[in-house]
Amino acid sequence: MHDQDSKLDHAAIKARIRELGRELGFADIGVARAEPGAAVDRLRAWLAAGMHGEMDYMARHLELRAQPQQLQAGTITVISAAIDYLPHDRTADAPGQAAISRYAQGRDYHKVVRSRLQKLADAIAGLAGPFGYRVFSDSAPVMEVEYASQAGLGWRGKHTLLLSKRGSWRFLGEIYCDLPLAPDAPVDEHCGTCRACLDACPTGAIVQPYVVDARRCISYLTIELAGAIPLEFRPLIGNRIYGCDDCQTCCPWNRFAQLGDPEFSPRHGLDSATLIELFAWSETQFNDRLAGNPIRRIGHERWLRNIAVALGNGPASPAAIAALQERSTHASALVREHVDWALARLSSGN
């Protein structure tokens, strides 16, 4: 299928893939072998320590991560791609404002990245002829950061995200394929002795360099955790209602980050909304306004749970107390529990 009679040789195909990637809006394209290597052992140790919390799928799909060929038969190469997404450089510092992770303020990246990767794969087929492939964007058990770092797109930062000299505000996507493309060389790491991300984490979730205990991470607590947020972490969450960017906003390399693709521009005022206005959304409004947004996946119940905690961490204004009291008889016991906690906290002066 991929012999010397191909329309272009593999070196030329690889060079053209980079050009096509840029034309499709990717910030960077690299190639790695489909061999996650020592990263699998690190993942096994992390799982054995229980740091994945309730994310059972991490353990369930371990072998799929370890063996790419189980996801796509014949895979020998991973084409790794990055898209810049930084929508703005503002932070939600006011306690009454909703702090939403920047990646979730606009369009759902899964669809955008996967759509562009599919276009790239179609173009590759035009160069190399039919080939076996599958595209991914945080949509299957793929060791994204490992392949991106092997492919020279950056290095794994101490916060475990991919980091480059242009920062970390990037979405990753991959094409698993059977094209024998030469792998790129990894780049050197440039974190040095810096520990800004470890020191900035509000809950101490980066328990040591390159190790995040998800059970302490605000992104896990506000997105992945289905039940009650542990009492010890509620005051530390502040006004963060979906995810947390603190380990990125403090990173010195992110001073060099460029504003990203306009596809990810904020929608529905999610970059400036107040907690009280978002808390008032009905379930129908939540579903309608967040159609095509990753936040919609957590559902209205967790949305209210998270905002209740944030309101409890803010000022005890009459408006905040009234908003919480309005939800104190909500049908969900989970929502009621967090509303009661917030009201008690405001009445005690935090």
TrEMBL record:
> Can you name one GO molecular function term for this protein?
epoxyqueuosine reductase activity
The pathway noted for it is: tRNA modification; tRNA-queuosine biosynthesis
Can you quote the record's cofactor note?
Answer: Binds 2 [4Fe-4S] clusters per monomer.
Query: What coarse category fits the chief subcellular location reported for this protein?
Result: cytoplasm
Per its UniProt record, the required cofactor names are: [4Fe-4S] cluster; cob(II)alamin
EC number(s) per UniProt? 1.17.99.6
Q: Which organism is it from?
A: Azonexus hydrophilus
List, for all copies, the residue spans of the domain called 4Fe-4S ferredoxin-type.
Answer: 183-211
Annotated binding of [4Fe-4S] cluster 2, by residue: C201, C217, C244, C247
Catalytic reaction(s) noted:
epoxyqueuosine(34) in tRNA + AH2 = queuosine(34) in tRNA + A + H2O
- Protein name according to UniProt: Epoxyqueuosine reductase
| Subcellular location per the Swiss-Prot or TrEMBL entry | Cytoplasm
Q: Which gene encodes it?
A: queG
Protein role:
Catalyzes the conversion of epoxyqueuosine (oQ) to queuosine (Q), which is a hypermodified base found in the wobble positions of tRNA(Asp), tRNA(Asn), tRNA(His) and tRNA(Tyr).
Indicate the family of this protein: Belongs to the QueG family.
Does the keyword 4Fe-4S belong to this entry? yes
Q: Subunit structure, briefly?
A: Monomer.
| Catalytic residues of the enzyme | D138 (proton donor)
Q: Where does cob(II)alamin bind?
A: R65, D138, L162, L172, S219, C244, D245
Q: Which UniProt keywords apply?
A: 4Fe-4S, Cobalamin, Cobalt, Cytoplasm, Iron, Iron-sulfur, Metal-binding, Oxidoreductase, Queuosine biosynthesis, tRNA processing
